[in-house]
Design goal:
Strand content: under 5%
Radius of gyration: 32 Å
Biased composition (Polar residues): 308-322
Pfam families: Fung_rhodopsin (PF20684)
Keywords: Membrane, Transmembrane, Transmembrane helix
Organism: Colletotrichum tofieldiae
Helix content: 55-70%
Number of domains: 2
Structural class: mainly alpha
Distance between the termini: 60 Å
Oligomer: single chain
Largest sheet: 3 strands, antiparallel
Region (Disordered): 308-369
Number of strands: 5
CATH architecture of the largest domain: Up-down Bundle
CATH class of the largest domain: Mainly Alpha
Length: 408
């Protein structure tokens, strides 16, 4: 913090304070961003709950996380508007110090409140997204363990950042009143630099986590591509986070602090709002399918299917030409070996009086060569007939209604 204050002192002596410079005011930009994302998050959250009538699923933990994130995000938008009015945000710090020095106390208090709500607001929608993964994909084993580890990490980092923000100065009043004797603060700018790194890592892990599962679903190609696109919308939140971190790394955020707060706070609001919107989008698919005209759905499916088939044919054609010779030799040798083995096994069964059976591990086909009471009466054993049964394995797979077009 001492470094930031030193830079501020140096800046005041070297910067030319022209009337045009002092008259600059970008506070309306922050107010516009705050209002816009308050409206957007309200719209998308309301649409999310409206879309639930088109699915068979009820409410889950992810819904509660998202509602909590929404209210915290509204608080963050409110702080963004208030700090323009009571903290001089949008004006250069030289103007505030010269004409409205009392606003700097309001700025410090607003920034402290914003730090607390930001760390909560950025963690809650991410936790909601992970809970959505658990509910939709019904993961077991390692994937479920990774998801729970992500939840624990998100909660732990959020709590630790909030506690650090609340105790960044001792006493906390020293944050806005530097006349208190014996007070001291941590390097707040270095703190924000450090917290950006785990945020980036967790964001990329959350985005990549469902991709393998989605691509392995027994769904048409166009549906899998649509699902991947829906979940990748969260990448816009990552972009906003990167831009916010870039501003912190490239500028002295606490030098012209009232001016720099517009970009830092604005991109923070965009980041958290985008995470909330991304958590809402997966629930829109059944609703969109319900209201989309059949001709439009058919056209989209046909376009995606043609593009996918073109890529698949180009890839498989090359691979087939390279493997054809080896495959033919391998299949011929394998067929001859299987024929010899089958004849040998059946001959042995005849000697044992058809008491055994042949089972193919590859196809699940069982060839029973024994008498059975449910067979048609006749000289079955002497005629060398066989009974063929097919073993069918049924596996019940739990899927979420969100992956379907509508209620069953």
């Amino acid at each position: 913090m001492a470094t930031a204050l030193l830079l501020a002192a140096e800046s005041e002596t070297t910067r030319t304070l022209t009337p045009e410079y002092l008259a600059e005011d970008s506070g309306d930009q922050l107010i516009g961003i705050s209002i816009a994302f308050a409206i957007l998050t309200t719209f998308f959250l309301g649409l999310r709950f409206f879309a639930k009538q088109f699915t068979a699923g009820g409410y889950g933990v992810d819904d509660y996380f998202l509602v909590a994130a929404y209210f915290v995000d509204l608080g963050m938008c409110a702080v963004g508007i208030v700090m323009v009015k009571v903290g001089g945000v949008g004006r250069h710090v030289e103007f505030v110090e010269e004409f409205h020095p009392a606003l700097l106390t309001g700025w410090a208090k607003c920034i402290l409140a914003f730090e607390v709500v930001y760390f909560a607001s950025v963690a809650l929608p991410k936790m909601g997204i992970v809970c959505l993964y658990l509910r939709v994909f019904n993961w077991k084993g390692m994937m479920r363990t990774i998801a729970y580890a992500l939840l624990a990490t998100l909660a732990a980092t959020s709590v630790s950042f909030i506690v650090t923000a609340c105790f960044q100065c001792r006493p906390i009043e020293f944050w806005w009143d530097r006349t208190i004797p014996g007070g001291q603060c941590i390097d707040v700018q270095a703190f924000f630099h450090a917290q950006s790194i785990p945020g980036f890592v967790l964001d990329f892990v959350i985005m990549a986590l469902p991709l393998r599962t989605i691509w392995g679903l027994k769904l048409p190609m166009h549906k899998r591509i649509a699902l991947v696109g829906i979940f990748m919308v969260g990448s816009f939140g990552v972009v906003a986070s990167i831009i916010r971190a870039y501003i912190f790394f490239q500028t002295s955020a606490f030098t012209d602090r009232t001016w720099a707060s517009v970009g830092l706070v604005g991109w923070s609001i965009i980041e958290t709002g985008t995470y909330i919107i991304a958590a809402c989008l997966p629930h829109f698919r059944p609703m969109i399918s319900h209201y989309t005209p059949p001709w439009l759905k058919s056209m989209v499916r046909k376009t995606i299917s043609q593009a996918s088939n073109s890529v698949s044919k180009a890839t498989s054609s090359k691979n087939t030409q390279n493997r054809r010779g080896d495959d033919e030799v391998e299949l011929t040798a394998r067929s001859r070996k299987q024929a010899v083995d089958t004849e040998s096994d059946m001959a042995g069964d005849e000697e044992r009086g058809y008491s055994g059976g042949i089972r193919s591990p590859a196809s699940g086909m069982t060839v029973e060569v024994r008498k059975s009471d449910d067979m048609i009466k006749g000289n079955w054993a002497q005629e060398g007939q066989i009974r063929v049964t097919t073993e069918v394995k049924l596996e019940r797979v739990r899927t979420s209604a969100f992956l379907n077009d509508a209620k069953p």
